[in-house]
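anyone seen this seq b4? input:
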Amino acid sequence: MGPAAHQRFAMVQASEEIVSDAGAAFALLCEVEKWPVWLSLARSVRRVDGERALGPGSEIAMQAPRLGAREELFVVERFLQGHLLYLESAYSCRRSWEFRIERKGARARLVATLAYPTYGGWLGAQAERLLHRHGVERELQASVVHFKGLVEFENHPDRVLADF
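predicted toks r here
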């Protein structure tokens, strides 16, 4: 029995309605270097492939200590302008991030999903659920709320504070 037989995946998801144009939300989402400002699971995020437009094949390096201390390379596997950004770990299918912006008239909704492996079969998956996943879920939900605040603040017509 190989190692894959003992591996299961955890998935956490968070969503939040945003009182702003979906285009503005997606534009902020595409500024990956700013992810650590709102995504508490990420310590650093950078584009590896330079200044070209974000799209399929773009490479992004992310350090997320809560999910593993070292920097991990992700590739944009699916990209739909204004709607979908899906990243998958470059060297394995072990971890993936999906950010989806849903249009709802003058409002939008961000849905963020993180999938990552758990090891040790059924027992390992249960231990992950009890000891780790709830904290990751809370952090992801708080991050989505923070993203909402940034988008709404940046695009509020009566904004009086300076840019952050």
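Strands lie at 7-18, 44-47, 59-64, 68-80, 84-89, 96-104, 107-119. The domain at 8-154 is CATH 3.30.530.20 (Alpha-D-Glucose-1,6-Bisphosphate; Chain A, domain 4). kinda curious what u guys think
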